[in-house]
Write a structure and sequence with these properties.
about 550 residues, mainly alpha, Serine Threonine Protein Phosphatase 5, Tetratricopeptide repeat, Arc Repressor Mutant, subunit A, 29 helices, about 75% helix, Tscrpt_reg_LuxR_C, WH-like_DNA-bd_sf
Length: about 550
């Protein structure tokens, strides 16, 4: 009688999705008498959702054996899939593969069992990770056909989701997003189990982040919030993964304090033994928020933690090094990351950073190449935010090449897109580019208004480095004499020639140059010159040494001779 009452409470808790209480009562019932198959399945599901990896594996193994012994091959194959997923989340890939192979052998004896489709899901995911979207789509399609034959809503939803993921990587983006939306509608209608819901929600938001599909990500994240918040005491690995993507969206839309809280919580949840292979993504996201705030020490520590958990730390770490004035290190890091990244969507994020870094290094030609590749990717995927990111990159390059008209033509539409997408930080950075172009065209009033608007946004967000670059500007935060020295450096003059031109000692010129490097956060004459051209501080004519009074007011001109 007591066992029956305990089981009743466990089942009732499971129906309410009170996962922690479910585990407590099922553990008590199991200690009194071994659980039946269906109760083992409920207990295992709750343990998995809570991130209790070791317990979940033990329960799923018991369920698998029980289903095989009872002749429930379909249920055993489904159980084997969840065993694979649980073990893979723990980083035990050989163990996970062994269970998949065992289930495949079982399925060979039951060729008419449509639940064989579950075994195709990891294969499709593997093909996607391996850069074979065509193979992934074909495999996911076979899984969906089997799912529809047996009427399994979880399998239908998961297979549809993978079809959409594959279509996106095939650069058939609209078709892919339609399939992904279809899978999400099934979740919203309550047609899939909580485990599939967590898996598909997180995967979908990740794709939206990769595509910069901001409105769609925002809409479905609201649904994700309701799903996660609707799980009493839901604090396991799956919620940690979801929190990473929630943090990314909050960062993009300007709620940086909440984004940081979500990222920290994700770090905590993903370092508790379940999902540790994904903890690196949480630490990377936390590092990005610290970097944007100008918190170099915490940012570097978060990036190092991300690396310890196996995540690539680019482009964030390279941009951190750039902010620290270590331009050569930043350039080497971004070159390495690009060389290792064939996926075009992943390259898009790297290329945007590469433009900024290579311009700081004075390599305008390399920046132009990166911007051109980014434009190709934006055209292929057709996403507005990718076009906006491309516009900012092209504007920065045009400024460095002395073409403020082209810079303005690229930066202004980019700002409008970011504004419409409610991405305040990106919009403000675009306005800074607009301001530099206006200044280079001689419209100081327009430049000042653009910079004031951008500064207000940076202040509100807590983007200290970006704000400092504006509030300390007085033309780059430099004194009038330092502006003169910088303009002559950009014109290609040596310290000796600058000293003759300005009637100063070489020692004084060297001191001015040191101050310029410090204020601009650069480490070389080449980087300082690139800054001058990008910000309208270069001279349009190279004065002859000693020809006092022949200088032209700084504005964007041609790049300095190499």
């Amino acid at each position: 009688m007591e066992v029956s009452a305990t089981l009743t409470r466990a089942r009732e808790c499971h129906s309410r999705r009170a996962w922690a209480d479910t585990c407590v009562h099922y553990a008590a019932a199991d200690a009194a008498a071994p659980l039946g198959i269906d109760d083992l399945a409920r207990f295992g599901e709750a343990s998995q959702l809570l991130g209790r990896g070791e317990e979940a594996v033990r329960l799923l193994e018991r369920e698998y054996r029980a289903r095989v012994e009872s002749g429930d091959i379909a249920g055993a194959l489904r159980c084997a899939y969840w065993l694979h997923e649980t073990l893979a989340m723990r980083g035990e890939f050989s163990y996970a593969g062994g269970w998949l192979a065992r289930a495949a052998r079982l399925a060979d004896g039951e060729p008419d069992c449509a639940q064989r489709g579950y075994l195709l899901l990891p294969e499709a995911e593997g093909r996607l990770r391996g850069g074979d979207p065509d193979g992934a789509y074909a495999t996911a399609t076979r899984a969906r056909e089997l799912a529809e034959r047996c009427g399994d809503p979880d399998l239908v939803t998961a297979a549809t989701h993978l079809q959409g993921m594959a279509r996106v990587r095939q650069e058939r983006v609209d078709e892919g997003l339609a399939l992904l939306d279809e899978a999400m509608v099934a979740l919203a209608a309550g047609e899939a189990s909580p485990r599939i819901a967590g898996h598909v929600y997180c995967g979908f938001i990740a794709v939206c982040h990769d595509l910069h599909e901001v409105p769609r990500a925002r809409e479905w994240t609201l649904a994700l919030n309701e799903w996660v918040d609707g799980q009493p005491r839901f604090d396991g690995g799956y919620s940690g993964i979801c929190l990473i993507h929630r943090s990314e969206l909050l960062q993009l839309t300007g709620d940086w304090p909440d984004a940081a809280r979500q990222a920290r919580t994700a770090c905590e949840r993903l370092t508790q033994g379940f999902g540790e292979m994904l903890a690196g993504g949480a630490f990377y996201q936390l590092g990005e928020i610290h970097r944007l705030r100008g918190e170099a020490g915490p940012a570097e520590e978060a990036f190092r933690q991300a690396s310890r958990y196996g995540a690539d730390t680019q482009p964030g770490f390279a941009l951190l090094r750039l902010a620290q004035g270590r331009v050569d290190a930043a350039a080497a890091a971004i070159r390495r990351a690009l060389a290792e990244t064939p996926d075009r969507l992943m390259r898009a994020r790297l290329l945007a950073a590469a433009v900024e870094i290579t311009l700081a290094a004075g390599d305008v030609a390399a920046a132009r190449e990166c911007a051109a590749e980014l434009a190709e990717i934006a055209e292929a995927f057709g996403r507005r935010a990718l076009h906006a990111r491309t516009g900012c990159a092209l504007a920065a390059v045009a400024l460095a090449e002395g073409d403020p008209e082209a810079a303005l033509a690229a930066a202004r539409p980019a700002w409008r897109i970011w504004r419409d997408l409610d991405a305040p930080y990106e919009a403000a950075r675009a306005r800074v580019l607009v301001a530099h172009a206006c200044r280079a065209l001689g419209d100081e009033d327009a430049a000042a208004m653009e910079l004031d608007a951008a500064c207000e946004v940076f202040t509100r967000l807590g983007a200290a480095p970006d704000r400092a670059r504006i509030t300390a500007r007085a033309r780059g935060g430099l004194s009038p004499r330092e502006v003169e020295v910088l303009g002559l450096v950009a014109a290609g003059l040596s310290n000796h020639a600058i000293a003759r031109e300005l009637v100063l000692s070489e020692k004084t010129v060297a001191r001015h140059l040191s101050n310029i490097f410090t204020k601009l956060g650069v480490g070389s004459r080449t980087a300082a010159a690139a800054y001058a051209f990008a910000h309208g501080l270069a001279y349009t004519e190279i004065p002859m040494p000693g020809a006092t009074g022949m200088r032209v007011s700084p504005e964007a001109g041609s790049p300095p001779p190499s």
